[in-house]
Amino acid sequence: MSIFVEGALVLILAGIAAIVVALGIKLFKGTGDRAATAEDARVIQETYQGLTRLEKRIETLETILFDRKREDHRE
Question: Domain map of the chain by residue range?
Answer without folding.
Answer: 3-69
